[in-house]
Amino acid sequence: MTGTPDAKSGMRRRALRVVRRLPGIVRASLLFAGAKTGRFIHSAGPILVRGAAGIRIGDQVFFLDGPVRMELVCRPGAEIAVGARTGFNYGVSLQASRSIRIGVDGAFGAMVRIRDDDGKRVAPVLIGDRVWIAHGAIIEPGVTIGDDAVVSAGSVVMSDVPARMIAIGNPARLLPGGLHRAPKAPGAAEV
Amino acid sequence: MRIGSGVRLDGRLSGIELVTGPGAELTLGEGVVIDEGVSIEALRSVRIGARCRLGAFCKILDNDLHLVEGLRELAPGSHPVTLEEEVTLGPRVTLLPGAHLGRGTRVKPGVVFSHRTRAGAEVVGHPARVLSPA
């Protein structure tokens, strides 16, 4: 017998977590067959993958499951690159005709859409490290988003977002980052 | 989770997601109609009043789930979301923590909203504007 009961239960929890993630890791390796993938990529549900040859996924990237299926479409000669430890909620759609590149430690909310081809022009999309793109946001072709930026829910981003800025609205406007939403007390002022 | 009588969930085109965290409450009043792809996540309290209608792919959250500043893995505090009776949400509306919609509020498609409205108000645009508060 080694270790305190606490340490033992912690080890058991970690072991359980690895076992629980195994099916997701196996599923992801099947879904991304033919793509360049890092280690321990995890997918909780089905993903539509087209053009795996142009897709690169970093270590420990994970895909959550939900009512809508995630889709990655990479047309011939195009590239989709996702940095390590980036996470995707359900229903995210990435469609590349030339290039979509996403940095490390990103967080993508559900139903986010990114494309680099709107039928008129094709322009690469570049998303920095630690970017959080919230539920239902849409990123248009040619947009560059800087490190640590946040795109708020439902926003439509048509122009570049510098590092550490917050993009809000349709069309998206910029706010300085690090801005906290004031907590709303019950009976807060009506607008 | 409490679901009133005559609630209609139309998930024919896409699934509907209702999530409650530990100890949280999610209440759907009598005769609520929910279209496809709607997702409601309650970590503390989400209340949908009687005869509300939620359009396709609406999202209702009472917690931002990530901090804007600091450690992104941490979740901030929850703020309850309340829809009084006969509120109508258009498709792709997002209600964020703290939203409180008065009786009969109409929210147009694509709106993102986290404030209070009076009875009979109309909410449009993103960032949201409140028109014609009764």
Indicate the topology.
The complex is a heterodimer of chains A (191) and B (134).
Chain A: H1 5-31, E1 36-37, E2 42-43, E3 47-50, E4 55-57, E5 62-63, E6 70-74, E7 79-82, E8 87-88, E9 93-96, E10 99-102, E11 107-108, E12 113-115, E13 125-127, E14 132-133, E15 138-139, E16 144-145, E17 150-151, E18 156-157, E19 165-168, E20 173-176
Parallel strand pairs in A: 1-4, 2-5, 3-6, 4-7, 5-8, 6-9, 7-10, 8-11, 9-12, 10-13, 11-14, 12-15, 13-16, 14-17, 15-18, 17-19
Antiparallel strand pairs in A: 19-20
Chain B: E1 2-3, E2 8-9, E3 17-20, E4 25-28, E5 33-34, E6 39-42, E7 45-48, E8 53-54, E9 59-61, E10 81-83, E11 88-89, E12 94-95, E13 100-101, E14 106-107, E15 112-113, E16 122-124, E17 129-131
Parallel strand pairs in B: 1-4, 2-5, 3-6, 4-7, 5-8, 6-9, 7-10, 8-11, 9-12, 10-13, 11-14, 12-15, 14-16
Antiparallel strand pairs in B: 16-17
> Which strand order do you get reading across the main beta sheet of chain B?
2-5-8-11-14-16-17
Calculate Rg of chain A over CA atoms: 19 Å
Helix content of chain A: 10-25%
The count of domains of chain B is 1
The CATH homologous superfamily of chain B corresponds to Hexapeptide repeat proteins
Written overview of the protein:
The complex is a heterodimer of chains A (191) and B (134). Chain A is α/β, with parallel strands linked by helices. Chain A has one helix and 20 strands. Chain A has one helix spanning 5-31, and strands at residues 36-37, 42-43, 47-50, 55-57, 62-63, 70-74, 79-82, 87-88, 93-96, 99-102, 107-108, 113-115, 125-127, 132-133, 138-139, 144-145, 150-151, 156-157, 165-168, 173-176. In chain A, the strands form three sheets. An eight-stranded mixed beta sheet of chain A has the order 2-5-8-11-14-17-19-20. A six-stranded parallel beta sheet of chain A has the order 1-4-7-10-13-16, with no helix packed on it. A six-stranded parallel beta sheet of chain A has the order 3-6-9-12-15-18, with no helix packed on it. Chain A is globular, with a radius of gyration of 19 Å. With 134 residues, chain B is mainly β. Chain B has one domain (2-64, 74-113): Hexapeptide repeat proteins (UDP N-Acetylglucosamine Acyltransferase, domain 1), CATH 2.160.10. Chain B contains no helices and 17 strands. Chain B has strands at 2-3, 8-9, 17-20, 25-28, 33-34, 39-42, 45-48, 53-54, 59-61, 81-83, 88-89, 94-95, 100-101, 106-107, 112-113, 122-124, 129-131. In chain B, the strands form three sheets. Chain B has a seven-stranded mixed beta sheet, with no helix packed on it. Chain B is globular, with a radius of gyration of 14 Å. The model of chain B has no long low-confidence stretch (mean pLDDT 91). Chain A binds chain B through residues 66-68, 105, 107, 110-111, 130, 132, 135-136, 150, 152-156, 166, 168-170, 173, 177-181, 183-184, 188-191, and chain B through 11, 14-17, 37, 39, 57, 59, 61, 64, 66, 68-69, 72, 77, 79, 92, 94, 96-98, 110-112, 114-118, 125-127, 130, 133.
